[in-house]
Amino acid sequence: MQILGIETSCDETGIAIYDSEKGLLGHTLHSQASLHAQYGGTVPELASRDHIQRLIPLTRLVFEQANSSEKDITAIAYTKGPGLIGALLTGASFAKALGYAWKIPTIGVHHLEGHLLAALLETPAPTFPFVALLVSGGHTMLVHVTDIGHYTLLGNSLDDAAGEAFDKTARALNLGYPGGPAIEKSALNGISGQYTLPRPLTARPGLDFSFSGLKTAVINTIKKTELNNQAVADIALAFQDAVIDTLIIKSKRALEQTGCTNLVIAGGVGANKALRNKIQSIGNVFFPSIEFCTDNGAMIAFSGYQHLLKQQIDPDWAIEAKARWSLADF
Ligand code: KG4
Ligand code: ZN
User: Fold this and answer.
1) Which ligand sits nearest to residue 266's alpha carbon?
2) pLDDT tens, 188-208?
3) What is the CA radius of gyration of the chain?
């Protein structure tokens, strides 16, 4: 069977077709990064309008890529939340309209579950149980995953998420938006050891994260520094190292606490190559391919398929989206 997946929770329109026998048949993605760059962050109304324009062309394209047609589709999965409400509603409405017209069920997927399961699209896929380090623009979490649908939150962000700290630090260094890739690029030219930044909450026990103090430490460092290209690169590297060290220390602790050996990285910050290289040493580490770390339709199609197997489909045609939706409620 084939599942159409639709992702519109933030500033990426992602569409994919997942086949239960053959795996991923195709996926298309449009990033709105350049649309929002001049504002230094995602503008919700512009995001919704752009999703509306992209949904139909990207869906047509994915059917061509997959050499598939609407008759092959068994169900439609879409991101129901959390995210920007207007953006979510564009994908939810589109999914419901197609499902109603094609007379097939729709499945509202939790965006974070999509990220948590993205590594299962890869070969070899991680086996359960595993600890997932979910590091995105909105979340920094350690989650104990014992099976599909069995998620225990081990640690959470108390303030800024890791990706948000990358974005805010990049803005402070005038590196542009989105900040993660910009910091990563600048850090390549950085000299290590020029600046020392804290590894927040690592000196005491526990698995929660706090990156807001680190961001403030960067801003204070910038105030005391004459910002030439080299200084920017050095600070970018010091910041990136501080985030990576913190993520590694906490992930190691989570593996010890749960007795798991498998660690799965998920979410946009998981695209960071320095993080991917350094974190390898702490266990059997699995990553989604870089394109499936950031938001995409493939992870939504795959999660939707898992729910379909359990007959967990939308009960009616009401269009529902949840801007806030904790993984614990889910
Ligand atoms: O998972 P994602 O695409 O969207 C959310 O669900 O939030 O994550 C986006 C976040 C942004 O904060 C972005 O700056 C960060 O992931 N990011 C990165 C990299 N690529 C994206 N952070 C560090 N290094 C990267 N290469
Ligand atoms: Zn995401």
Assistant:
1) 1
2) 999 999 999 999 999 999 999
3) 20
Ligand 1 center–CA 294 separation, angstroms: 6
User: How many Å lie between the centroid of ligand 1 and the Cα of residue 195?
Assistant: 24
Verdict on whether the full-model pTM lies above 0.90: yes
Q: Distance between CA 28 and CA 99 in Å, rounded? A: 20
- The residue with tokens 């939308």 is 314
More confident site: 40 or 257: 257
Predicted confidence (pLDDT) at residue 40 exceeds the cutoff of 90: no
Closest residue CA from atom 23 of ligand 1: 180
What is the average per-residue pLDDT within 133-144?
Answer: 96
pLDDT at residue 330, as a whole number: 66
Residues having CB within 6 Å of any atom of ligand 1:
10, 136-138, 163-164, 166-167, 178-181, 184, 267-269, 271-272, 294-295
What is the spatial distance between Cα 312 and Cα 105, in angstroms, rounded to a whole number?
10
% of the chain residues with pLDDT over 70: 99
What are 26's strand-pairing partners? Answer: 17
State the DSSP string of 290-302.
GGGTSS-HHHHHH
The H or E element spanning position 95 is helix 85-102
- Residue from 166, 171, 211, 289 whose mutation best tests the ligand 1 pocket (most atoms within 8 A of CB): 166
CB of 260 within 8 A of CB of 130?
yes
Q: Angle at CA 45, nearest 5°, toward 64 and 165?
A: 90
